[in-house]
Amino acid sequence: MNPDLAFAVWSGERAARVAAVMDQRLPGIDVPPRALHAAMRYAALGAGKRVRALLAYAAGELAGADPVDVDGAAAAVELVHAYSLVHDDLPCMDDDVLRRGKPTVHIAFGEATALLAGDALQSLAFEILGSPAHGAGDTTAAKSALLAVAVGSRGMAGGQALDLEAVGSQCGPADVERMHELKTGALIRASVRLGAACGATWSSAEYDALDRYASAIGLAFQVVDDVLDVEGTAQTLGKTAGKDAAQQKPTYVSLLGIDGARARVDELRATAHAELARFDARARRLREIADWIALRTN
Amino acid sequence: MNPDLAFAVWSGERAARVAAVMDQRLPGIDVPPRALHAAMRYAALGAGKRVRALLAYAAGELAGADPVDVDGAAAAVELVHAYSLVHDDLPCMDDDVLRRGKPTVHIAFGEATALLAGDALQSLAFEILGSPAHGAGDTTAAKSALLAVAVGSRGMAGGQALDLEAVGSQCGPADVERMHELKTGALIRASVRLGAACGATWSSAEYDALDRYASAIGLAFQVVDDVLDVEGTAQTLGKTAGKDAAQQKPTYVSLLGIDGARARVDELRATAHAELARFDARARRLREIADWIALRTN
User: Fold this and answer.
1) What's the whole-model pTM score?
2) Angle CA(B253)–CA(B257)–CA(B258) in degrees, nearest 5?
3) Do A145 and B162 touch (CB under 8 A)?
């Protein structure tokens, strides 16, 4: 099998796997309150790249962990991501109507139910991470605390707050990078760390290298997003295109130009590979994910 | 010292204690993003009855736990409560402008920052509960999962969803009771269980009795709320009075009348005391809290 095809098979299998775990843990739509559970399932299941789950599984492979031991961490990071999208799309935030090619949750279920669905998806992530049924390696309490820091005010939620402050303001590349480090980078780094924590014990040098890998691809993911936001259409993106410019948000493209942004992606991809150089063939999936993120077109 | 005064001293001391723990764990307003951290502190600190923290400390006393071992659980339940109030007050929910005598968070900081502050307060609760610095007794992972279930879609967030569905609909007493069991009862029960889990090991009969105590006082708290909503003024309540009737929400007063609601409180208070009968003098604070909840006037 050629390498690209092998990666596509692996990532498709793992994406289906984490969706099955979430499907199993999300209450059914027949369980009251029905609208809330329907909204949670709508937000978490269905289409989605599952980048964060793939990173957890890939880091778990590097750590020699069985996928079953990574399922809890993979589902938790995807549930947190789903919650963040629901809240980010709300009228008081980005006020977006289209996500992954479907109406956003508040359009489909109303604003109050969308708010509660996001809230409850966050709780479910911690419920799964704290459950003895999932997870091995590092203690589940340490994993919980790690995820909580990554998604709180000094992580993802903090990045969203910086994003709010950035609208219409004069930000330089360093400000934009700091915002993205928190808004998307913190959860991506947590995904790698949680997956890696499901197996082998790491030296701090190894942990740091993995963390720098995760930072590099997290940032690359965001720069590619900015490029695609300019070049893409709603049809290929599955979400409203060109909205950053419309909202006067500073982006990598507005700061560096398209060519500059692409050069930055190449640089970050090279950094990601360099950080993995110390690891053996078990880092294969992490390497492939770095390439996939840098070269993706949607 | 007369018993009422002794309880007032104890509860005042514990309320100050949990506020100090939260103050220490909430990032300072000089830490970016500053508006987010200011909003989180505004929501969590300052006035507040701290019922949930008092329950955790009181259950901890019954369990023979040192207060320092209960601090994490007490802070976590108060942070979750604070987050729920911030989101509950948002325009898409109850759209309230006054809380604890102050402008609500979205009035003071804007809607987007209020949304993120609630989100990040939930994360911080799990961060504290997962931290090795706080807590003893039961494993922190089990505590995390217990709290997550209590606040998620089959707990507090689920109760808020049922509350939304109830507006303007024909609900009987059983529906209203079910809604309150989730909306306020689930977190109150978790507060007692988390506190009790910080010390002694309990038989399942003892755990069940504590849980029935918690259910009774949780419901009593809500019935008293409904009575005060009719009888009180914004000045004594520190929040908008009469809003349930204005929103056509079914309440205990609308279902049972004022006298019927008061009789229900007496019944629930008696149940709470009966459930504690098996415990010795170390259940003193739990008994006092039951009386305080039943007799409170704000």
Assistant:
1) 0.94
2) 80
3) no
